[in-house]
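job 3f2a | input accepted
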Amino acid sequence: MIKRPFFRMNELSFRKPRRTAGRPARRRPLWRTVADWAAVLLLFGACGLLVARLDRLASRQMEGAAAIVDGDTLTIAGARIRLRGIDAFERGQTCRRGGADYDCGAEATAALAGLVGGRRVACEGRERDRYGRLLALCTAGGRDLNAAMVSAGWAVAYGAYDVEEFRARAAGAGAWAGAFEQPSEWRGVHGGRPESPHDILRRLLALATSLLWAQDEGEKTE
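job 3f2a | predicted structure (222 res):
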């Protein structure tokens, strides 16, 4: 006959204890949060170096007479180019100023045409958008057309040029003199396809932030 041992280990001793009702959620250690954000910063530093390297290796340059399509699109030698980092008011889009509606899409197109002024335009970019347009920084007469459109108030920042937008808003330049719907929102209402802001690092940062937030929320509910 086999005798049972005097001491038997509790079979639940290795299980995760259950939370009792009303017990406060376990707070995430500060060092883990700091470590996570340090890893994110290192990741984005590496991504920044990679993007800069790719820009040098695969950038495309175009120069010539430009035909204006709308406030943020032009063509050079038949190639369609989208001004990177900005979003201009669309053709047919109306804004409001002085209690009346006006065609701010036409104003944006005219503003870009005025900035070009018939001069040769030089563009440089690497990425393409969903329509196959080259996303590029363009200049005419040495002037940054992307920044100038935002500064004039006929385009909004869309991945870059936040400082120019802030100044245009403060000065009431262009469409900031009245009220308007963001071009991206206007496209959504009128059947346009969604388009992500033209900043890969910012998109990655937003993704990483959302993942960390989801992780924190998951630990709080455990």
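job 3f2a | Residues 111 and 142 are 17 Å apart (CA to CA).
job 3f2a | closed
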